[in-house]
Design the sequence.
């Protein structure tokens, strides 16, 4: 029987029915979540804004530390349960979901560490006649109500990266998880409340009507939008924010990798396969376009193809599975169509290229697809890697930079000069050397450039975005 989840909005009395949550692997119904209607959205905003406006009731930093510390401990105690829930609702294999939960716990701890060390700064005074006898310093205050809209592909850790910093910064937060994967989010909010966070400080909802999500985001009571999802939706919402509201947007990319003639091919295969096929390629910085020097392109292709064929695709709740399903059956249809179009246009299909079931798609390697093919110009978000031979490094860099997206990139080379040359010329917010494009630890800056995003992610960077630096200038005869 499907589990039922109520709206997590204190005092709510109305709803818009329920939203059904299906396991992407076998399409079984696993939960029904009560959906917010317009009145529920307004109540959530009213509640959160009242908390922000009542400064006397702001959560003391020591209380925030206490809640987050207990939250991390509770998550640790329930790590296996959380991992299985994430694998089931999102399709990421259990072994990778276990890693995600460990990262999420560490992310909560990073919120505490950042809060402990968060501080303002002194502004120099006594430098001229106007500043003589003055002391100036800044403190950080919460920016206001935070609204967080999240994506499906990391159903717990993404939520932690949006909600955790809001709590740490002292902001009331309203979170709307992806409709396909709301359960991990709801579990996290439940844990926060169990850890002592007053219910009103973190409210969660799903909606059946996306117009209500837009209403939630664009309300004048919102101080900050944290959005993870498609570029089309993210930029549209940014354009409609109320005056004064800030935001951070995290979209996708089509991550490029350059492999030069001096690269250690054997050492590159495992990270390239992992980076491209991890979570069935449903990662915003997944390895997608590999530009390999013509002298090693065939060897790289053969070895990457062999690695791809060995990977186990199947039930994400099995500990043996390496690659799970795509989030929706329609996504399998789309990936299959894109690959077929590329092959028909001249790409060489080295492995894969067809569906395993309604929900799973084979690991696929394409060699030299046309530059104008969808697999070359758009984010695949599926288990497909494209390899393009090149003869001139500048041509490879130009092709890597040719798209309107720029997130993380990678270079595989044993030549430090080549690595530095590529680092200096690639359009990317981060360049990995001898590591795949999907590498991330949760305390590093994580940001899309060009159309791939706005602002900087990462615990301490997000927390800083959710605060206002407030200056005090003190005039005293004692100075």
Sequence:
């Amino acid at each position: 029987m499907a589990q039922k989840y109520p709206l997590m909005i204190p005092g709510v009395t109305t709803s818009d029915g329920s939203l059904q949550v299906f396991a992407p692997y076998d399409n079984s119904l696993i939960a029904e979540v009560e959906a917010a209607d317009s009145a529920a959205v307004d109540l959530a905003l009213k509640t959160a804004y009242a908390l922000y406006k009542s400064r006397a009731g702001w959560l003391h930093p020591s209380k925030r530390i206490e809640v987050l510390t207990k939250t991390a401990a509770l998550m640790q105690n329930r790590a296996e349960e959380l991992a299985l829930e994430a694998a089931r609702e999102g399709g990421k294999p259990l072994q990778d979901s276990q890693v995600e939960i460990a990262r999420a716990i560490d992310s909560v701890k990073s919120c505490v560490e950042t809060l402990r060390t968060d501080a303002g700064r002194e502004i120099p005074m006594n430098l001229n006649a106007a500043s003589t006898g003055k002391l100036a310093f800044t403190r950080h205050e919460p920016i206001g109500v935070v609204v967080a809209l999240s994506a499906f592909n990391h159903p717990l850790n993404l939520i932690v990266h949006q909600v955790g910093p809001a709590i740490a910064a002292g902001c009331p937060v309203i979170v709307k998880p992806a409709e396909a994967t709301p359960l991990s989010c709801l579990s996290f909010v439940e844990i926060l409340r169990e850890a002592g966070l007053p219910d009103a400080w973190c409210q969660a909802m799903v909606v059946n009507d996306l117009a209500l999500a837009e209403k939630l985001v664009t309300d004048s009571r919102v101080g900050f939008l944290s959005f993870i999802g498609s570029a089309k939706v993210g930029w549209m919402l940014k354009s409609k924010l109320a005056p004064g509201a800030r935001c951070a947007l995290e979209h996708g990319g089509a991550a490029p990798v350059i492999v030069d003639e001096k690269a250690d091919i054997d050492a590159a295969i495992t990270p390239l396969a992992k980076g491209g096929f991890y979570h069935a390629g449903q990662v915003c910085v997944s390895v997608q376009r590999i530009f390999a020097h013509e002298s090693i392109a065939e060897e790289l292709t053969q070895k990457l193809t062999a690695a791809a064929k060995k990977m186990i695709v199947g039930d994400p709740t099995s500990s043996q599975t390496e690659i799970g399903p795509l989030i929706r059956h329609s996504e399998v249809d789309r990936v299959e169509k894109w690959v077929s179009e590329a092959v028909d246009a001249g790409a060489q299909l080295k492995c894969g290229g067809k569906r395993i079931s309604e929900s799973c798609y084979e690991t696929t390697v394409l060699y030299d697809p046309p530059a104008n093919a969808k697999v070359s110009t758009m984010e695949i978000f599926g288990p497909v890697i494209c390899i393009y031979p090149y003869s001139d490094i500048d041509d490879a860099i130009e092709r890597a930079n040719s798209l309107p997206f720029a997130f993380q990139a990678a270079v595989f080379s044993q030549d430090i000069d080549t690595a530095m040359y590529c680092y200096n010329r690639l359009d990317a917010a981060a360049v990995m050397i001898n590591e795949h494009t999907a590498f991330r630890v949760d305390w590093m800056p994580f940001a899309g450039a060009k159309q791939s995003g706005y602002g900087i992610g990462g615990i301490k960077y997000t927390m800083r975005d959710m605060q206002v630096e407030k200056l005090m200038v003190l005039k005293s005869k004692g100075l």
Observations:
- The mean pLDDT is 97.
- The chain has 15 helices and 22 strands.
- The first strand starts at residue 3 and ends at 5.
- The domain at 255-433 is CATH 3.40.309.10 (Aldehyde Dehydrogenase; Chain A, domain 2).
